[in-house]
Each structure stands twice: as structure tokens, then as C-alpha cells.
Amino acid sequence: MDDQRKAYAAALGAVACWSTVAAAFKLTLAHIGSDALVVYSAAAALVFLGTVTLVTGSLREFRRWTTVDVVRSATLGALNPFLYYLVLFKAYDLLPAHQAQPLNFAWPVVLVALSAILLRQRIRALSYAALAISFSGVVIIATGGNPLSFTLSDPLGVALALGSTVVWALYWLYSASDRRDPVNRLAANFAFGLAYVVLYAAVSGRLEWPSAAAAAGSVYIGLMEMGLGFVFWLRALKLSRTTAEVGNLIYLTPFLSLMVIAVVVGERIGPPTWIGLVLIVAGIVAQNRFGQAPLRA
Description:
Distance between the termini: 25 Å
Helix content: over 70%
Number of domains: 1
Radius of gyration: 19 Å
Number of helices: 12
């Protein structure tokens, strides 16, 4: 098998992992609080990522890290997994999975806006049109298909789902220029993030002992969402001739995820969700084609 076919296989592996996690979030949250779920899933991800660094022999890179590198990982860990998953899991706790998932997928839209604000990047007219398309999809989903009512289905849940996109976009911007080994960097981020979330959950009294179902769900989420999915994706990017050749496969994720949610969780996926998601993805595709902010996991 040549490298490009391996890249496609790895990218599809990432899509397969990420397409199942929204359903896993919702099912597991029925057995454990959202904050405790972050603790156990991040712990599972850290064990997996640490094992990968050992098996691949990349562990020795840590010896070359400077104090600046360590501080950077401590900062990135505060964004992901700590703040990002605290916000995201709480959103899933409040909203139906079929609503939280596409709202969270709108993060590239936020990335473009933050790039313009924080990095002073110039946005083309076509980019504004693409942003408007995606934003209309967000409004349709957030209002349950009644955009003219200006009434949100669950104001706090919607705010948290959209807030998670801001956190992830900030994480992307801060980590985009980081040239360290990506798996090592992610493992270090999770080491710091896990320490933060354990301390937070303990101080807030939200650290609970998981049931068997909660433990199984946490491990699954840690592996598929936070660990294996990213390892697959990083390998796809490394092997592919261009990012675009595998990047387009990511657009399968939200649609497959909705199908998994419908079958596994039993949620009815109404027309507003499908229409809103199509608009969000259409805007992102247009932005990637005519704008300057490529989609990257």
C-alpha cells in the first residue's frame, strides 16, 4: 500500500473514531457528571498517549524541551483538555446530542473570526459570505428550526456549545506554530490538563467514583475522541501528499455522527438539524476554498 492510500486509511480511521463520540458523550453522561467525565476520559487519553510515546521511541524528545516549551504545554493544557471538555461535556449534558454536535463543529467559523481579531488577518468579501452561510446554520439549529423567533432551545446549552468552539479555536491558534512532536505535545497538554481538572473537580466537590458503565464510557471517549482519533489524523496528515486530499474526509464526521446518534442514542434528527449542519459545512467548505483558514483537527 502506497503512502497516499495509507493516509486515506488513517483519515477514515479518525473519522470512524470521531463519528461515534457524540453518542458516547450522551450515553456516558447519563451515568456520571460532566466534570468527572473529563477527569476519567482525560486520564484514559493520557495513558494511551503516553504509551504511544514509549512505543514509538519519541519520548527522548522531552529532554530537549526548554522551559518555554513546558510553559506552553501548561497553557495549552488549560485550554485542552481542561476548559474545552468542561464546557463541551456540560453542553452535551444540557442539549440533545444531535444539537450539540453540529454546533460544536462550527469552530472553523469562529477560527476565522478570531484570526481577524487577534492576528489582524484580512478577511475577503467571499469569506464574509461563507461565514454568513455557516452562521445561518448555527441559528437554525440553536432555535430548533425557528430562526425568526429569536428563541433559543436551551440558552445555556447553546452558549456552552458555541463557547466550546471559541476555546478550541484559541487552542488551534496557539498551537498552530508549535513545531514539537505532535503526540508528545498532546501528551504533555493532557498531563497538565488532567492535573487542572482533578484539582477543579476535587475543590468543587464534583469528583465522583464512576460506575462500571461510566468507567467504560470514559475509557472509550478518552481513546476515541482524545487519543486514537488524533493519532490517526496526525498520521494521515504526515503521509498525505497534501492536507486537502485527506482534509475533505473530515466533512463526513458530523453527518455520520448524527446517524450514530439516531441509532444508538435514539434521538430523532429533525430537518432543522440536517439543514443547519449542511449550511455550517457549506460555509466552512467555501471558507477553506476562498478564504485563508484551512480546516484542521
